[in-house]
Amino acid sequence: MWQCVIFPHPIRRLITGDHNFSTANCGRLNEGGPETVKGIVVGDTAVLSVTSGRNGAIVLGVARLVGSRLRWETVQEIRAGEPEGDSPLILFKGTLVRQR
Fold first, then answer.
1. SS3 for 8?
2. Which of 47, 46, 55 lies closest to 90 in space, CA to CA?
3. Span 80-92, pLDDT tens digits
4. How far are the Cα atoms of 24, 38, 48, 60 from residue 9, in angstroms, in the given order?
C-alpha cells in the first residue's frame, strides 16, 4: 500500500509518503515508515525513491498513472540493504489499484 502527499509547486509537484509490502500470508514484511517514498511528478509520471523499512535498501523507480491504475517499475537500486542478500521487499514491477 502506498500513501503519499503531493505538495503543489508551480513547475512540478513533490511527493512524500510511506509504503508497505508483504509476501503471501505476511510471512515477511516491509513496513516502510514515514517519508520512505520521496519524489517528483512531471505530467502523469512520478520519479520516486523508495527506502525499505526492512533493510534500508533504496531504489529509484517510475510510477505512471494509466486511467485509474498506477503502474510502477523499479529502474535502479541506489543502495543495497543490510544484511547483504536480504530482500528489501520493494515491488519490482506491477500495477497498483485503489481498493475501497
1. coil
2. 55
3. 999 888 888 888 8
4. 39, 15, 16, 22
Contact yes or no for 96/65 (Cβ under 8 A): no
Q: What angle do CA 97, 55, 89 make, to 5 degrees?
A: 30
Give CA–CA dist 45/40, Å, rounded: 8
State how far the Cα of 11 lies from the Cα of 6, in Å rounded to an integer.
13
3-state DSSP assignment of residue 11: coil
Q: Measuring CA to CA, which residue among 14, 55, 10, 12 is closest to residue 35? A: 14
In which region does residue 85 sit, left (phi positive, over 0), alpha (psi from -120 to 50) or beta (all else)?
left
pTM, entire model: 0.78
